[in-house]
Write a structure and sequence with these properties.
Length: about 425
């Protein structure tokens, strides 16, 4: 009966899509309810740093995007997820055209929409540039069926992609009456530049690169309300583009190829609040302003929060269980797992083999606040398969090979000045 209903829903969804492709505005919150599969599992595919839209005026930019679409298709056909997450830097806004900067999203979303999968994004520093804004990306995403990206906090300092979704049991008929199995939190770590703003000297206006305290307060209050409503802790996962400073501190402690399998080529120096001074100035040569402390305190004191997934550093793909203190940290970890994804796009720096991080939870695993995760590669292979359970960091796993893939007609030297066609 449930299956029949789902089938009907899918058919209704398909016919509605056919009737008005791309143009109609879908309201994700009304159309899409996330549910576990009948076997009690739920799978998420996380694409990070797709970097669509580089240099549309050269042949290599569009070629990169064609290659990136193939990565998305390969990943989605290897493991069919229940939700697709785009974890920031969807577009390289600084070398996109102003008049059609968001049009590349149709390419990014085509493989997801044609497979009738729901999707949810966080925005990254490259998604907010003089010619591009998170608001414009959200408006464009919302035209597509399955769009679940939202903006729940307003205000200049909040950023755009701050919201949550609940995942319900497979047999839930009326979400208002069901207890969710899982909460998914999406945070905007901002960065990049304010759209359409210039400093008096003509330079772009820098945007702080941490999760704002207004968002942290909303997160804690909303989480407390959900716990009260449902009478117990609900397991949760979180997504943010720019990692917190703790990821750098853990890297200094040492990433072991067998205990934290993954690529570890990047120094994680571009974490939240890097390059800012404690007083909010950027031009005084500070290396770190500490403004992500509220966010880190929140994630280490939220009962049930199992892992935080970031992107941003294309050459880091490991997970580390953050327990206790780490060098230079005023916040101590409570065992939350901090994971990077895999560079998914042919745009952006680096030639590390493209892929996506897959996350699998089951009702049984959630009882112990455990999740499984691995990287599905564009080659079809799987690397870095681990259980983020209580003994992670002490369990031995095969090391992840540091493989690269090349596209001879792509140009990995990004950020070239664009022809001046602004209006
Ligand atoms: C989308 O749905 C929400 C929740 O029901 C509602 O508040 C909002 O107005 C809707 N937006 C549009 C554009 O229809
Ligand atoms: C954006 O416009 C430029 C030229 O105006 C064009 O070459 C390019 O293909 C367009 N991009 C998309 C994704 O439509
Ligand atoms: C965690 O998972 C690993 C790999 O499956 C396993 O070897 C280990 O025993 C598990 N630890 C616990 C506490 O269940
Ligand atoms: C790659 O980009 C660099 C820097 O903009 C440029 O000099 C070079 O010609 C480009 N190569 C190709 C094949 O387009």
């Amino acid at each position: 009966m449930v299956k029949l209903l789902l089938l009907l829903l899918v058919l209704v969804g398909l016919s509605r899509q056919d009737a008005s492709p791309r143009l109609s505005r879908f309201n994700g919150s009304l159309d899409t309810v996330l549910k576990m599969k009948d076997d009690g599992s739920f799978q998420i595919a996380i694409f990070s740093d797709l970097h669509f839209g580089e240099n549309a005026w050269d042949s290599w930019g569009p070629q990169q995007d064609i290659n990136t679409v193939k990565v998305i298709e390969k990943v989605l056909d290897s493991d069919r997820p229940d939700l697709v997450v785009f974890n920031g830097d969807l577009i390289t806004g600084e070398n996109a055209f102003e008049h059609n900067a968001t049009d590349v999203l149709d390419q990014m979303l085509a493989p997801v929409v044609s497979r009738t999968l729901p999707f949810a994004s966080t925005y990254g520093n490259h998604d907010s540039q003089y010619v591009l804004s998170g608001e414009a990306i959200l408006a464009h995403e919302s035209r597509h069926a399955g769009s679940m990206t939202q903006s729940m906090i307003s205000g200049r300092d909040a950023g755009v992609s701050n919201y949550y979704h609940l995942v319900y049991p497979s047999d839930c008929v009326d979400p208002a009456k069901c207890k969710p199995e899982l909460i998914l939190w999406f945070f905007d770590s901002r960065g990049g530049f304010y759209p359409n703003e210039k400093n008096p000297d003509g330079s772009d206006v820098g945007r702080p690169n941490w999760v704002d305290v207004s968002v942290v307060n909303w997160f804690q209050q909303t989480n407390a309300k959900l716990m009260t409503t449902h009478g117990s802790i609900i397991p949760s996962l979180a997504f943010v583009h720019i990692p917190a400073k703790a990821s750098r501190a853990l890297q200094i402690l040492g990433i072991h190829p067998n205990y934290q399998p993954g690529i570890n080529d990047d120094t994680v120096s571009g974490h939240q609040a890097a390059g800012w001074c404690p007083d909010g100035q950027t031009d005084a040569g500070c290396s770190y302003g500490g403004q992500d402390t509220a966010f880190m305190k929140a994630i280490t004191t939220t009962a049930g929060l199992m892992a935080l997934f970031s992107g941003h550093h294309h050459g880091a793909t490991w997970c580390y269980k953050w327990s206790g203190t780490a060098p230079g940290m005023v916040v101590a970890g409570n065992g939350i797992n901090l994971c990077f994804g895999q560079h998914s796009g042919y745009g952006g720096y680096g030639t590390w083999v493209r892929g996506a991080r897959e996350v699998v939870v089951t009702r049984e695993m959630l009882k112990n606040l455990e999740i499984d995760t691995y990287i599905r590669l564009e080659t079809g292979g799987v690397v870095g398969s681990v259980s983020l359970n209580s003994s992670y960091n002490n369990d031995w796993y095969p090391a992840t090979p540091n493989d690269h893939t090349y596209c001879p007609t792509c140009n990995y030297t990004i950020i070239t000045p664009k022809p001046d066609i602004r209006h």
